[in-house]
Give the backbone structure.
Amino acid sequence: MTKTGEDKDVTIHIDEALCKRCGFCIEYCNKKVYEADKDGMPLVKNPEECTNCRLCELRCPDFAIRVEVVNNE
Amino acid sequence: MAVKLSYREYFKEEALPLMWCAGCGNGILLRAITDALADLEIPPHQVVVSTGIGCWGKADDYMKTHGFHGSHGRALAFGTGIKLGNPDLHVLALMGDGDALAIGGNHFIHAARRNIDITAIISNNFTYGMTGGQYSPTTPLSYKTTTSPVGVAEPAFDVCGLAEECGANYVARSTVYHVTQLKRFIAAAIQKKGFTVVEAINTCPTHFGRRNIPGDSVEMMEYVKNLSVPKSRYEKMDEEEKAKHLVTGELVNKDRPDFLSVYREINSVESESGRGEGK
């Protein structure tokens, strides 16, 4: 399942089947885009804060995060 | 304008989910490698990953490049054969700390001495993860493992120091926290002729972390982050402080002729002088 936080520029997809809830994305996002749900699953809480630095994607050990620029025209 | 290659050209998405534990940084290292290959635009069929045994030895399962999954500690031995058989291929030897420095310790020393054109990417998680968390040659002194329940009594190998002393052309250390630096070092190592080593300090919350670092995966990552210091800071530390940290950065970058160049040169000289024409 893919959960999407929509914003004008960036879409963040989290694949819940791949996520192992290590918490790296939540801890190391400088802009606090993510918050954990009660099971430690990251939720895209503040997508408007995302700067598309993609460090969460690169630091996700399970290839569960995809940060996509939607309108890059 | 040429379309930029994606890591997906090298990463086998259909093999997901990865077999590694929650909080293990092997997936981060795998992403850094596939990103580096994409940046360098090396076609996947010109890359061979040679692996041994261990958690990180499973990495070839997730790559679309050629792969050779050999026996424990022999990634460099098989890699040497692959490189000499077809020197046009880029050979990456993916090894864990135990695989590279204990079981395959001699291969590591001699691959560096020989300066064979292989890139060794070592995932150092300070323990034997797959077999249940025994101490490895890189477990820091006095840290606890299943085979050292009160603390290991042996000092750890300095992976990069060993590679440097043995003659590797390029030696760099980074961590799975410093992802962009890690990718940069891997790309530089692949481009460099001769034996190149990138040590990636990795997280193992399941075994190493559980016995030594109170807390979860994030605490384990914090440990890795705080353990590593850049050269400029490391050089200002006293000996006691240095012993508690690992220096990161490009530690060696030189251009000693690689094994095949030397081998070809010596053999051509021999044939000109009339020797070595017996075949």
Observations:
- The beta strands of chain B are 47-51, 66-69, 90-96, 119-124, 127-128, 134-135, 170-175, 196-201, 228-230, 246-253.
- Chain B has a mean pLDDT of 94.
